[in-house]
Amino acid sequence: MAFDPRLGAAFNFDAADLECNRGGGLSPDQEILRRNTVRAYRRRLDRGGLLLGLALAAAAVAAGVGVAKTPGADATGGVIAAVILLGILGLAAVFRRRGRRTTDAIGAGGLTVAEGPFSWDSDMNASWWGRVGDARFTITRDQEELLTTGTPYRVYYLPAGNAAWVLSIERMDGPETGPK
Fold first, then answer.
1. How do residues 80-129 score in pLDDT, each as one tens digit?
2. What is the CATH T-level fold of the domain 5-26+109-171, as seen in this structure?
3. Which of 110, 55, 116 minimizes the C-alpha distance to 88?
4. From CA 98, how far away is CA 49, in angstroms rounded?
5. Do 130 and 146 meet the contact criterion of CB atoms below 8 Å apart?
C-alpha cells in the first residue's frame, strides 16, 4: 500500500518514517523527536516537583503563622490546613507518578504495531480517542475525519502510559507490508 500524504500531514509523518516503521524501527527523525520529548518531559517533571515542594512549604508556613497569630485560635485550624496541604501533595504525587510512567514508556522506545478496524469515542473531558486494535490514541477532529470508522488500519506507535503515541498509520487495503 502506498503512503497517504493526507494521513502523513495529519499525524506528522512522511513516507520515509512509514518505511522505517514497516521495517520495525523508528526513523532518524522519529528517534530524535522521541529523545527530545523524553528529555523535555523529564525536565518538566523535575522542575514541577521542585516548584510544588517550595509552594507547599510556603503554604504550610503561612498557614502555621496565620493560625499562631489568630487570637483565640487553637490547633484545629492548623490541623485542617495540614490535612488540606497533604491532600494536595498526594494528588500532585499521583499525577507526577503518572507523568513519570508515561515518560519512561516513551523513553523505552519499543515500536509496537496494532491492526484492526478504526473506531473513535470521546470522554467526559471532551477528548477524542481513536482505537485500532490494542492501540488507543488521542486524535483531533481533523484526524478523525480522515479515518473511516470500521475500515482496517495499521498503526505504528510507542506505548505511552494509558495511550499510544502514534508514529504512523496506514490503511490496510492490500497485502500486508509491515511486521505483525
1. 777 777 787 777 777 777 777 767 767 776 888 999 999 988 776 667 88
2. OB fold (Dihydrolipoamide Acetyltransferase, E2P) (2.40.50)
3. 55
4. 13
5. no
